[in-house]
Amino acid sequence: MVEVFKTNVQAPAQADEIIAILQFHFPQTKINFDLQDCDRILRVEGHCAAEKIVHLVTANGFSCAVLE
């Protein structure tokens, strides 16, 4: 399963920090950002809970919403 999220993450260092946090909580997933996209896309491939991802990203100071 692939979940796609719209974020406001701007810098590669910020993306790396969020990826590290998410990998800790979801170690069996593949996670990446597309910071070139206007929606600053976060993709999570594997078994995960979209609500928890939104919570973890927003708890670290960024906006995050499931992109439908």
User: What sort of overall outline do the alpha carbons produce when their principal axes are compared?
Assistant: globular
Instruction: Label the structural class.
Output: alpha+beta
- Radius of gyration, in Å, reads 10 Å
DSSP strand count: 4
What is the share of helical residues? 25-40%
> Could you please say which CATH topology applies here?
Alpha-Beta Plaits
Largest sheet report:
4 strands, antiparallel
Supply the CATH class: Alpha Beta
The helix/strand series, from N terminus to C terminus, equals EHEEHE
Q: Strand order within the widest sheet? A: 2-3-1-4
Task: Please indicate the count of domains.
Answer: 1
Measure the end-to-end span: 14 Å
Short key terms for the protein model shown above:
68 residues, alpha+beta, Alpha-Beta Plaits, four-stranded antiparallel beta sheet, 2 helices, 28% strand, HMA domain-containing protein
Give an overview in words.
By secondary structure, the chain is α+β, with helices and mostly antiparallel strands. 35% of the residues lie in helices and 28% in strands. The protein contains 2 helices and 4 strands. The chain has a 4-stranded antiparallel β-sheet with strand order 2-3-1-4, covered by helices on one side. The longest helix has 14 residues, at 12-25.
Would you summarize the structure shown here?
The protein is an alpha+beta fold and 68 residues long. It is built from two helices and four strands. A hairpin with a 6-residue loop joins strand 2 (30-34) and strand 3.
